[in-house]
Amino acid sequence: MSNDLKVHIIAHPLIQHKLTLMRSKDTGTKDFRELLEEIAMLMAYEITRDFPLKEVDIETPVAKCKAKVLAGKKVGVIPILRAGLGMLSGVVNMIPAARVGHVGMYRDPKTLEPVEYYCKLPGDVAERTLIVVDPMLATGGSASAAIKLLKDKGAKSITLMCLVAAPEGVRRINEDHPDVPLYVASVDEKLNEKGYIVPGLGDAGDRIFGTL
Asked: Hey, which residues are catalytic here?
């Protein structure tokens, strides 16, 4: 991997083990979907590591004490349709109070450029930390376009969380949105002539929804 790429690779053993299972062509839809949800939960745990805390007074069954809670940070989770839906429940399981928006993007099979077809967001995106989720960061076109759309709607704090990325996609996000932190479980070797990540895991949407 090139040293000029700005990306956080979450190399936790559980994530890497589950990702390997997902890569296998013999892993069926049910297991693939469950593994993706589990990885999304583990990744959400990592990317929220620096969320601010505050002290509150509580009373346990034994005594009064001071304890820590999240300091009121508002979170939004934005899956890029359709494959991003596979990561949504995992993140929301970890952050139940998060609001959910949806951005519909697909990659034109001929030009490989993103085409927007749907956008529905919480009304207060400017006040929220938005976690954009999409399993595959291939060319980076769809993710970059989705992030631009969120910024145009007023978003000020955005993090991109993907499962597998190609160096080309990472570089595209770095260039288009240098202010957006990028978290992935793996940066793979390259894109092939069809724009698929190599070795990757195939078409994530088709494997999640069983539409192969």
From this structure: 107, 111, 203, 206
